[in-house]
Design a protein that fits this description.
This protein is an alpha/beta fold. It has 13 helices and seven strands. α1 (6-30) packs parallel to α4, α3 (70-82) runs antiparallel to α4 (87-106) and α5 (122-135) packs across α7. The model is unreliable at 1-5 (pLDDT under 50).
Amino acid sequence: MKKLIGLDQIRYEWALAKTKFRHFISRSIRGKAPTVLVYQMGRVGSSSILKTLHQSKLKAHLYHVHYLTPSTLERYHSQMQQNFSERGFLGEHLIRGLELRKRLDHNSDWKKWKIITLVRDPVATCLSGFFYHRFGKNKKGNAGLPDNFKLKQEISGALKTFFGQARNYEWILNWFDDELKTNLGIDVYTEPFEHSRGYALLTKREPHVLILRLEDLTRVGSEALGLFLSLVRLRLLKENEAGQRPYADLYRDVLKRVSIPGPILASIYDSKYVRHFYSADEIRMFKARWSGVAADPIVL
């Protein structure tokens, strides 16, 4: 067989991955095991959920996607075709999303799926995503990141640009309407969310949904997952991706020092999304955290 190089190799890998996942889905449709779909926006702690379920005695087909909305999938597909270097980030999620979208369109069995989704403080989600996309591909460890002298100028300018564009956080605030409501007919805002409990089970209609707050995952994750999936003695396995990445020290430093303008915080924390999943006291604490002044602040 002729050795493939460059874009030919990338396209071959893409086609092979699609074929493998399509066969995997076909087997699950023919089988009797239920389907569990971890369906959430990025950077909200799904790694711990997936690690726990993969190592549990869960007898189900387990999938993981960020998007099922056709227009969003098409946008990312186009983005990856224009820049194949993005395939590591986009490729796997995109393949799963495209193939599960077909199943959603052509099979009614999706109403029996069990959906697990998560929420997180939007500013924390934004900062996690910012660092992952900006520094996540760095292979040089801390040596490949800005030193302390460059930190303030480099990060402050980039974050100011990032938060200055509302679309960089509005997609988080709109995710449940754009995804669960649009694709599955589930309006999470019509069901109460008990803040002190940290999770909610939506079981009045199919498909059933578990909503977990990342901030409460360590405290109630095992309980919520066990109850939702009928798993006994389930132990949550923690996975701290950001803490294990080369930029971990830089990330922690910025979290302590960043100061976000009040109008941006108001736009985020006055949203339907935040007011539904967090109490007034929790929202005040979030605002105080991200508007506080450190000894050497990174002011946006």
